[in-house]
Each structure stands twice: as C-alpha cells, then as structure tokens.
Amino acid sequence: MGCLARRPIQPPMESLTDSIYHPRTADHTGSGSRGRSVLNWTYDINFFVLAWVTIVLIMGSAELGAWLGRNGRASDEADISTLTGATLGLLALLLGFSFSLALSRFDARQNLVLEEANAIGSTANFALMLPETAQKPVLGMLREYAAVRIGLGVPYGRSKLEGDIARSLDLQARLWQQAVTVSAIAPQSLSVNRFVTSLNEINNLHESRLTALRYQVPAEVMFMLMGVAMAAMVLTGYHAGARGTRGRIAASMMSLMVAAVIMLIVDLDRPARGLINVSVQPLVDAAQGIPQ
Fold it and tell me: Which of 62, 69, 110, 196 is the most exposed place for a label (fewest CB within 10 A)?
C-alpha cells in the first residue's frame, strides 16, 4: 500500500490547460508550433460566428462560380460537368470521413462520462464498508468531486477548466489520504482493497476525460474540407450559371446544405460548447445516488 501515497508530478496549470485546448501546440516549439497555433485558432471562435463565416464562404463560392459560368464559353460546359462531379465526389468522401471521425470522438466522450459516473457510484458504495470515521468525509468528498466533474470545462473558458482541474486533483489527493489512513488501520481488509481499486479507477478516468477533451478532428482536415467544399461550389455554380437561373437556385441550396453539414461536424467536435453537448446526466444521477 506504500504506492498509494505517491502522486505524479503535475505540470504548471497554465501549460496543462493549454495542452487541453490546443494539444497539437503543446508539444512543439519554434515555427512549427506557431504554424499549428494558426491552424487551431478556429477552435476558440464562437460557434455562431464560425457558422456565418462558413455559410458566406460556401455560398459566396457558388455565386462566384455562377458569375463565371454566365460569362464562360458554352464549349466549356461538358468539361466543367465532369470536373464538378469529380470534385463533389471528393467532397462527399471528406464529409463522410470527417463526420465519422467527429461522431466517434463524441461517442467516446459520452462513454467516458458514463464510465466515470459508474466509478464514482461504485466508490461511494465501497466507502459504505469503510470504518464509520472515514465514511462521512469520503462520501462528502465524492459528492463534491461529482459536482466538479458535472461542470468540467463548462461553460467554455480556460479559467473555468483550470479551476475544475485543480479542484479535481485536490479532491483526489484528499481521497487518497483517506485511503492511506484506512489502509494503515486494516491493510488486509477486502472492503478497503475494493475501495482503493475503485478510487484508482476514478483517477484513471479523470485523465481519460481530459485526453478526450484534447483531441478533435485535426485542423488540417477541416481546412482541407473547407477548401474542397469551396472549390466544389465554384464548379457547381459555374455549371449552374451556364445553364440558367433554376440551376443557380439549386446550387445555392446545395451550398447551404454543405455548409450545414460542415457546421454539424464542427459542433460535434466541440464538447464544451455549441448546440450539441455531451450529456452529463449519468454523473448527475451518480451524485444524487451518493448517500448523505
């Protein structure tokens, strides 16, 4: 049980939160780090601002293509039709890949919330088998811990996440102190061993949730997706502009749908804000189930 008192050395809190919000910049220095910071700046933009920018860029590309199509040569139409189909196929592939990636990571975050709620509930149950002097403080700290984990990084902000991480680590340290104390009293107790094992699972899931917050769809993929979408809309608009007004309306509707799908991917990839958020109801239920 001597290993229970050993705690990993924590990095400075400022660098820790930087690595959570911008994981791709945390491990690099020099020009490479600055370049990746530029690529990840979109992560901090307000969702609705980014949505309007995306709509303007995509629909503007379609309008640009329509203008070029109205002033183009009729002989270009067959070639443009082939290029449009190929570019739209590439766009569909990138959209499907990016959506699948974002959805899988969203599901992973949701599953981690459920696992953490189960771990907290199990630890609370095992705490009921500890000596009476340890039960009340342990259960109280577990209730505090569950409350912190319910609001982990929400609402979005570095200071909010920094405070949540600091509070989580402090409560973990205090829980381990209680574990060390009861282990010294009854080192061979099965109930104490189960409590320690469950507490260790809480520690592991703490890091797992932070890791899940760190990783989003790579910014390079999103920039490539936007570039291909704009190119596809230019070609679609060109083809529509060469065919007349009805084609332009269809191209505008398609560009709006493409922008909506891109923003859906972005929203899934932002766990702490936006319209689609990871449900923390399992943690709420776990907190309410901890005995007083």
Answer: 110
The answer to whether 54 touches 263, Cβ cutoff 8 Å, is: yes
User: Would you say residue 167 lies in a domain?
Assistant: yes
**Start-to-end CA span in the chain (Å):** 28
Q: What is the pTM of this model?
A: 0.78
Provide the domain limits for residue 93. Answer: 47-289
Determine, yes or no, domain membership for 86: yes
Residue 276 resides in a domain: yes
User: pLDDT by residue (tens digit) across 226-263?
Assistant: 999 999 999 888 887 777 666 667 778 888 999 999 99
Name the residue among 273, 151, 148 with its Cα closest to residue 202: 148
Torsional sign, CA 277, 282, 283, 284: positive
φ/ψ of residue 33, rounded to 5: -65, -40
CB-based contacts of 286, cutoff 8 Å, min separation 6: 117, 118, 120, 121, 124, 146
- Domain count for the chain, please give it: 1
Residue 143, in any domain of the structure: yes
- Gap between the Cα atoms of 192 and 185, Å rounded: 10
